[in-house]
Amino acid sequence: MIDVFIKAQSYYLPKKVLTNEELIKEFPKWTVEKVSKKVGINSRHIADKNETVGDMAYQASEKLFSENNIDKSEIDFILLCTQTPDYFLPTTACTLQSRLGLSTSCGALDFNLGCSGYVYGLSLAKGLINGNMAKNVLLITSEAYSKHMHSKDKKNRTIFGDAATATIVSTTGNLKIGNFSFGTDGRGSENLIVKTGAFKFHDMMDFDENEAIEKDHFPNNLYMNGAEVFKFSMDTVPKLVKDTLEKNALSKDDIDQFIFHQANKFMLDTLKTISKISNEKFIYSIDDVGNTVSSTIPIALNRAIKENKVNKKDKVLLAGFGVGYSWAGCVLECQ
Ligand SMILES: CC(C)(COP(=O)(O)OP(=O)(O)OC[C@H]1O[C@@H](n2cnc3c(N)ncnc32)[C@H](O)[C@@H]1OP(=O)(O)O)[C@@H](O)C(=O)NCCC(=O)NCCS
């Protein structure tokens, strides 16, 4: 096994910012303070009507290339994590190969995961490099849950934001990728789901805030049973942390920063408490972006490095969890 690293990283946020003040105008029964206090989000970025996940992925990747002087010709694999692709087919990763002007020798595929997606992506990239199938993997997360959201769905519209991130995983770099822990429990699939729009269910329903959203689903619309997802996270994440530490032969004290999927502040506060992690070692990066699904961890990591919260020799534990249910953890070591 050769060492594999995160070599460079960037992120892109759509121009349009949706503040709590603007949102609350649509939901006068809620207040700006209520949203800010509960979910810790004051604003989020929303993709333009004509802006797709492919467009956001393109912007994040071009930013990555220009900010880090990356030689595009060296990229030999694209992995794109999304649940809001441009098309059913072809994969958005294939379209990006040509849009970004990457070599036709590049492998390219999309993978459909949500909040655990970045950690899974790192593992896939590491596996490709260790298996001598690639040398420089472009790992993209790009998600626009706003496109799955009903305009009257205040519970979800307050939480989720759109974003894309781009990471180069390579044989050199400053963040060494350690060992992984994975998990899946498909029994939770109904609790966070876009049920219609694909091929199993075809019925379309009118939106009824009090009735239908709890029971049924709308064309392409996101349904989340927040209480169940919360319960799952409380049960799973402490075990995920423990298993990730064990897989890396580390103890909790060896970790300098914990970067959990930024689901919402209520969830993060509770997870921090039950996992017994101190404030200084626990990253929050949600206030101005919201829950950006597979992009929360790379955005938080990028910011933590820029803000010198992660420094040389530090060990960072990443934990992604959510839709599926699916979860994954790993440790990064800053060189
Ligand atoms: C959504 C979630 C924040 C709701 O919290 P909760 O305490 O379980 O919610 P409840 O329905 O019991 O409502 C409690 C209060 O919170 C409020 N609330 C619920 N969702 C809210 C939101 N998005 N913003 C602000 N307040 C919210 C309710 O209106 C209620 O207020 P009230 O006491 O004034 O009536 C919580 O269930 C959660 O964190 N779930 C996980 C969801 C998530 O982040 N998923 C992302 C994928 S991992």
TrEMBL record:
Q: Where is the Beta-ketoacyl-[acyl-carrier-protein] synthase III C-terminal domain?
A: 245-333
Does the keyword field hold Transferase? yes
Q: Where is the Beta-ketoacyl-[acyl-carrier-protein] synthase III N-terminal domain?
A: 109-186
The answer to keyword Transferase applying to this record is yes
Highest rank taxon of the organism: Bacteria
What GO annotations for molecular function exist for this entry?
A: 3-oxoacyl-[acyl-carrier-protein] synthase activity
Recite the UniProt keywords alphabetically: Acyltransferase, Transferase
List, alphabetically, the Pfam families matched. Answer: ACP_syn_III, ACP_syn_III_C
What's any GO biological process attached to this entry?
Answer: secondary metabolite biosynthetic process
Q: What is the protein name stated in its UniProt record?
A: 3-oxoacyl-(Acyl-carrier-protein) synthase III
